[in-house]
Protein 1
Amino acid sequence: MATRTVARKVKLGRLERPAITGVLVREVVNFSSYWRSATFSSTVEPTVYLLAFGFGFGSLVSTIGGYDYVDFVGTGVVATAVLFSSAFPAMFGTFVKYQFQRTYDAILAAPVDTEELVTAEALWIATRAAIYGNVPMIVAMFFGLDPSWGMLAVPFIAFVCGFGWANFGIAVSGFAKSIENFSYIISAVLTPLFLVAGTFFPIDQLPEWAQVLANFNPLYQCVELVRSAVFGWEGWVDLARLGALVLFGLLMWRVAIYAMQRKLVT
Amino acid sequence: MTGKLEVVGSELAIRLRGVVKRYGPITAVNGLDLDVPEGTCVGLLGPNGAGKSTTMRLLTAQSIADEGELQVLGYRLPEESKPARAECGVVPQLDNLDVTLTVEQNLLVFAHLYRIARHERRAAIESALEMANLVDRRDSRVDKLSGGMRRRLLIARALVHRPRLVLLDEPTVGLDPQVRQELWALIDALRAEGTTILMSTHYIEEAQRLADTVLIMSHGSAVAAGPPAELVVEHAGREAIEVYGSPAKLAEAEREARAAGYQTRRTGTSISVLGVDGADGRAPEGERRAANLEDVFVLLTGEEIE
């Protein structure tokens, strides 16, 4: 096709920094008007999980897999916090921005392409996830989790994982016909993944097929990486986990761009 | 390298040739040709559904044409749309401001999106505020503004980077007459500065007042183009007769006028008998008035506008 070849030849300025910065500036300026509620929900929710499971369950089991139960849950819920502060805002925020506020129409009329728009939005959400993801760990420290140098890697892990889930959320939003469709994704995808991630109980108690499947769950990889960071690295295994998260992020990034391109450029 | 196209002998800010855009079974734009010379204001006039908004979206590559050639500021679309967009300002039909931000914050965001250099940002925002007469409201949140102010901010936002070309999609739709006139003054000032404008509208008066050239659109293509006054003379003559009366009388007048070979249109309370210059007695009795763009529109398309 003739047009295709032209497009390739003139593919100038993809992923330009000024375009990404512009979209990020919009998010940062907007954040100043809603940071309280965002911070509240992103910190209170995982803390509630932490307290409920830590004390509720923790009174029945004192140690699990060699960890104090509070330490086990406090590190595990980091992934939950990342999920809650990335996939959910991405799904709902994206939908609201193109459907109700028509923000993306305004942005794409400026010298910004869909690819840059999606990338900037995902980077922004991932940054928030990298910050909010630490909350459960910090709360757990008040309940006896010992500090360690590896904890400094947790924001980075949260960022990589958050980037993937942010793009997942954007993609879902791009494919969804209405905001009600999100319930299918939340019930059928996110809830199971969230429960079978080794957050609240170790997955080696699950049937073997479920254990194998869990390896494909990015949340599980995130949970395990965070535990390694806090309690001690496991070498190649951790590197493989990080690789899996990076792969998840890149894959979701391209899917999100595809979905939004389809939605926004008609 | 972007490299502008060598458009031979052209000072055209926009040049469309044979543009077709389909959405499933619907053809929204159907073989549209459009020229917007630099430094002029061109009005796209047509009823809802004529393809005006689709044309606007094509110009920012937010819709991709199925057929035809599109050039904006010498850039070929859609592949070179990004540099073209950098030099365009777009005022959308539907308000898409960030409502929880202040007036100034909205402008700041777009100063970034349009890549205004850091040291020029302040001045650019100030001059946009002044242009839109919003200096006093700079710290107001958008959701606290009136409809007219929001629309002015929408225009200011499109002008913050001093674009060469401004696309206005139904700039005064849904506003009351006083606010509309305020906006006309704003658009007129822009025009006086030499900014090229493409404006879509379904308000005849708006097109007549602001546009140097009007392109009448119907069912996705252009049916006539020219300066409003010339279009009127060419297609509707100089005068029309307005016949008032009871519905029965109107129906009769309509029948008579048609029998005498005149074209007519209903305007609710009256019948307009068109093209009655040098009337030779065949035309029905009524009030004579100057022909207008609306008459042209009806004559050319057989459709009522609005």
Protein 2
Amino acid sequence: MEGFFPQVVFSIFGVPVRDTVVSTWIMMTMVVGLAVVIGRRRPTALEMLVDFLNDTISDILRRPAEPYLPLLGALAIFIAVANIISVVPFLVSPTRDINTPAALALVVFFSVHYFGIRSQGVVGYFKDLATPVYVLPLEIVGQLSRSLSLAVRLFGNIVSTDLIVAVIFALVPLFVPLPLVGFSMFTGLLQAYIFTALATVYIGAGLEASEPVSSKSSSKEGGK
Amino acid sequence: MTELDPGTLITLITILVSGIGIVLGTAVPAIVEGRAVVKALEGMTRQPDVAGQLRTTLLIAMALLESTAIYVLLILLVLIFANPLLDRFF
């Protein structure tokens, strides 16, 4: 059980670096390398991926997804790869460490306010947040608790499925864990979808009141 | 019955609570999720046109329901592997 939880591998200038962080670096190199190679050899494959993400996100948002696609698509790809990277020998899922999901949830938390303020202005956004004044505390608690649940959901799902695989592996090391590894990969992909969908819903809720933002942002995109 | 020292007592209670907690904490969300799936499937068979939209909503709702089970798991993992009460006595 000791080897299951993240270990400190080495430390840079007194900052301890865990094996999940090293795994994240390797994963980032792999993803960027794959993107470069595929983008050069088979650009259509990347286009299909971007189209899929674009369709999914704009379906949930009910408006053009262009301004939000870089953030949400990157989140989706990062989490999907991070969740299934543990099938590669010697690599562990970065999402198995609570710090990675917490960082991702923080990014979502701040981007909700960023996009909300960008679409409605500072005053309009906070006015929208506290429309009847007495819901403001509830709104603040809701914002914080959903960030917490976003982080804990991803972490808990990945840890629990990995724990199941580890326990079965300790009992029967050969062939029997294979279906469970497949199940853990499926759960990882599903969690990536859910994390992205929830982030999209939260960002969409921040933009709710202003309807013409879609045309404004698309014209801005066209102007560039 | 002989006197137990606090550490043993806390460990015993932790094991009992973990066993009971994981059963309750997974059974209740599972039942509720089953209900949600049943309703969504009924809706999908009745109106296949909006099946995609229903599926998206269903997955998000399932994730929200599932997170209650994950909270239970998290608390139990903390209790088992990093019990804060045990440190108080040793």
Protein 3
Amino acid sequence: MWRFIGFRFLQAIPVILAVITVTFFLVRAAPGGPFDQEKAVSDQVRAALEARYQLDLPMHEQYFSYMSDLFRGDMGPSFFYPGRSVNELIIQGLPITAELGFYALLTALVIGCLAGVLAALKPNTAQDYVPMSVAMIGICMPSFLLGPLLVLIFGIWLDLLPVSGWGNSQGDKILPSITLGAMTAAYIARLSRSGMLEVLNQDYMRTARAKGLPEYVVVIKHALRGGLLPVVSYLGPAFAALLSGSFVVETVFQIPGLGRFYIQAAFNRDYTMILGTTVFLSTLIVIFNLLSDIVAAWLNPRLRYQFRK
Amino acid sequence: MKFNTDRLIFVFLILLAGCGGGESESRVESGNREGVFHFGNHAEPQGLDPHIVTGIPEHHILTALFEGLVLKNPYTLDIEPGVAKAWDISDDGLTYTFQLRDNASWSNGDAITAEDFRWSWQRALSPILGSEYSYMYYPIENAEAYNTGRMADFSQVGVSVLDDHTLQVKLHSPTPYFLQLLDHYSMFPVHRATLESFGADSDRLTAWAQEGNTVTNGAFVLTEWQINSHVRVEKNRSYWDAEEVDLNAIVFYPTENLVTEERMFRDGQLHRTAEIPLDKIITYQQEQPEVTRIAPWIGSYFYMFNTNRAPMDDVRVREALAMAIDRALIAETVTQGLYTSSTALVPPGTLGYQPPQLFTFDREKAAELLTQAGYPNGEGFPAFDLLYNTNEDHRKIAVAIQQMWMKNLNITVNLVNQEWKVYLDAQNNMNYDMARRGWIGDYVDPYTFLGMYITDGGNNKTGFSNARYDEIILHEAPAELDKDKRFALYHEAETILLENMAILPIFTYQFKHLYQTSVKGMPDNIMDYYNYKYVSLDSEG
């Protein structure tokens, strides 16, 4: 098991380094710079600004300077928000995005597993078709449509829930979590349904029932572990999807999370902020994929022996 | 026992209802009661250092936190005393002497002196700081030289301290709109001791302007600043005119998404919105006209030509393109009365100025001009690109104009939309054929528009260059004290600009906001300017 983990970890490092390098150069290649404004800026002003942010240095010097700061954990000053560092902004936005992601994942797991397991227990009946169709809504409706729709119904017509914000009014975390988790819920529903179907037809299930165990023990104790395996493997990519999906949800619901910073940074050509957020998010995604692989290997011992000859 | 799905759903619904429950009193209602104004502010402020930032969202917050020498009356836009209680202007219009009031103080108790202004202006003009609004100071003697690094000694700049409460400013030419400039945030004072305690004052990266650090001199003080969430300012009890301030606090929300902002307004979360989504305007005007405010704004919407590139290098082509557009039709049908047709650069009525009217929509004349230029009935006319920044309004207008050119002149135009920075980049490098441009005036005087088109002017970017125009704008008009004569000079300059058709005027702007009926004291004015001392919330409203 440890060799497996170690090997995976080593694989992750060059991935992250490649992401940083490519982003660094790509971002500077885009037309338009951080100091281009609609009102013209005099040459002296522009020169002063570029000197302050080290943009007048040759490209490779900027790169090495950035990398050495990065190894010390300093992601530099934001080009757009004078007086704020990238670390500071990420620390402000991260807890909110993480909480949103967590609630969304929770919602997705609850709705998805429930729908999938129920559907698998009685395939090709109403108990199968209804939950799966509802789950399909998550795949068919993009979040920028689902979000405003939910806001219209629950926020404005029924006046049950707040239309925006996060943590300001009671219940304002519900709609964003559902909006963000909807698509993941749909995938989890499909995965758990197919996983469960496969397991429920196995011989050892017949044995368990023959022993006289009540149905719910059969399902929970024997079927779930094997049936939910595909869901566990999906959690890594699911997390990545949730992170990037959060950008849209944060805009629709006015949530001050990392996603909004990221979009603003790209728009404003805030180089350090774009880089910092990209590094941070890609590291998180790599870690999550790693964790997801580890959990899958723990649940399914056959996966651990990939590296033995 | 099977999984009892009904029980599960029931439990889920209970949880949902328990968490929600709605609001008993909306944010607007509690704000009306407590005097807290909830302000939809369009975007997160880049910062709160008045000498560095450049946007309108920043303006709304900075005018609450700081105060300059003068203020403006929101009903008439007349100049009112701010930190300066009175002033004298010399007969030649070159020397302004300001008497500062004794009871004006910073939020930490320090008194405000004339030296505060002198030092602040020196800091704002520092070449290293790189303030993008430093051109506001240029009417002051030697300010431009100091700011561009040509002069190292600030004592040569026309700002001097006569005593603790008397500030004297010398201009290099009589600038009739100079007092208006003083109300712009780039000319606000900053607290020296605070800046210096955070590092070099000309280093824009210090954290002096942030929550907990900043010291300000306006009617409100900064109490909370959570990035991308809100900025909260509260009434400054030691402000010299605190009795006149009705509001207890203002909370600014960065409502970037127009559609979300409108929902927030409908849900009673905002007193004022920064915008109204275009497709909701008609509905609001018909069903809730009492909350809808659309009024002229001092801004011009036009297309600019790259006069260095064919076919735009022929003035007849430019005139033909200008005359082939039915502006009134677009204004009525495409933009639903949101813009007003214009055939000049300066919006009419700017301080009473009437721009020249050189042409109208005339498709025969346009076709004739195009024929004269060598493209009879549009034959042989090269297709060109019309650039605009990604925005639904701009797209609709561009499509309508593209069709009009096709129909009236039989020419092909390609519409190219670009993301904001890419679009700015193309303009700055003159890498375009024709591009959309908008310009909002910084102050109420035609100069704020006409000043752009001097030869090689930073905001010119069209290749337009005319010696007589430069002469008027740079020398004659600033020296003219008599308003009528000055306006005649402006008229002459604008006529030259339009005869050369360096730009293609289309519309003048209107701003559009939604205000709850409880909001009082925010009248419409051409600058879309607020003076928070006049604002109050009616708790019955």
